[in-house]
Amino acid sequence: MKEHNLVQTLNEALGWELRATNMYAHYAANIRGIHRLQLSPMFTAEATESTMHGDIVRKAIVKLGGIPVTERNTHKIIHTTQYDEMLVHSLETETQAAAVYADIMIEIESVGDQEMYDAIEQIYLAELRSLEELRLLMD
Length: 139
Ligand SMILES: [Fe+2]
Ligand SMILES: [Fe+2]
Fold this sequence. Notes:
Strand content: under 5%
Number of strands: 0
Mean pLDDT: 96
Number of domains: 1
Bound molecules: fe (ii) ion
Low-confidence stretches: none
């Protein structure tokens, strides 16, 4: 039962990572103006990171005997070419991710898989770092 809940929450995280991969790749390509110079590589790095996070989460789901989702979270990805709007949507996405991983951390504790706990904790900390970076960028 614990494992079943954990698989569900991990799948929620996977859906958000698949969405984040799409969103960041979209913003990296579409950003216009002088900020493209710095933010396009940053969005590309975030897209790559989201793919890596998705990979770790997917393997954790399989390890628990679950089936990973193949569809992204359906929360709409807003098209824009404006860097400031992109940052707002990025902050929203990272906030969601951090919240889901915080839930997962609690659920993994009760399953007692230390290796999985460590792997997910690394992702959680990465989401918190992204959140902090975005806050500073928007200051
Ligand atoms: Fe992530
Ligand atoms: Fe992230």
